[in-house]
Design a protein that fits this description.
about 210 residues, four-stranded antiparallel β-sheet, 2 domains, mainly beta, 2 helices, Jelly Rolls
């Protein structure tokens, strides 16, 4: 068998984990497996102290052209491009009924909050979080209209978000109408029963 340097050997295919690998241990050559090395590496990483906020000057090891190289965290960050319309976005509106003479009041219908969308949105899910001490039910309609003019129209496909018994709730919004860039968005409390001292609604959406 002809001796070969490591860099002259044929490159291995994807490892399965059971491949034997020679190591030097306790004064002699021993064998281990790819899985054993992997598990040791994972355990070692887990024992490291978590990094604080990165400054951009930290050194990171990479492989380039088959050779070990070093880069900074800032150089890695500079490679990342972000589509301003992409990713998960959220819209949040809330109400608090306040107190009278130290007694919590309940929300009433007709209360509205308006927001403006800064990018197009494809609604995915909604969440309603009632204020602590709430025990009733609430329904919140979500509407939109162009910023310049027009009439608000519901985007909730006939099933506006609602909760009962003062319990937080969530649901799908994938059937809702998309929101266009610049639209005004109106949240209105359309139904309340029992005591709801306050509520926050969160709409999660994909940017488009």
């Amino acid at each position: 068998m002809t001796d070969k340097r490591i860099d002259e050997l044929e490159a291995a295919a994807a490892l399965g984990g059971s491949e034997p690998i020679p190591v030097y241990q306790s004064g002699g050559t021993k064998r281990t497996t790819a899985d054993a090395i992997r598990n040791r590496a994972i355990a070692s990483l887990g024992s490291l102290t978590a990094a604080s906020a990165l400054t951009g000057e930290e050194i990171v090891g990479v492989s380039q052209g088959g050779n070990p190289r070093r880069v900074t965290t800032q150089e890695i960050a500079d490679l990342v491009t972000v589509d301003p319309g992409a990713g998960i976005r959220s819209l949040t509106a809330g109400w608090d009924a306040g107190t009278v003479n130290g007694v919590d009041q309940s929300l009433t219908t007709g209360r509205r909050v308006e927001l403006r969308a800064v990018t197009g949105l494809d609604p995915q899910a909604w969440t309603i979080l009632p204020k602590s001490g709430s025990s009733g039910s609430i329904t919140i309609e979500v509407r939109k209209r162009p910023f310049s003019s027009g009439t608000f129209t519901a985007i909730t496909d006939g099933s506006p978000p609602s909760i009962t018994s003062g319990a937080r709730g969530t649901g799908s919004a994938t059937s809702w109408t998309n929101i266009d860039d610049g639209d005004l968005i109106e949240f209105e409390i359309t139904a309340v029963s029992g005591t709801v001292t306050g509520a926050t609604i969160i709409i999660e959406a994909n940017g488009i």
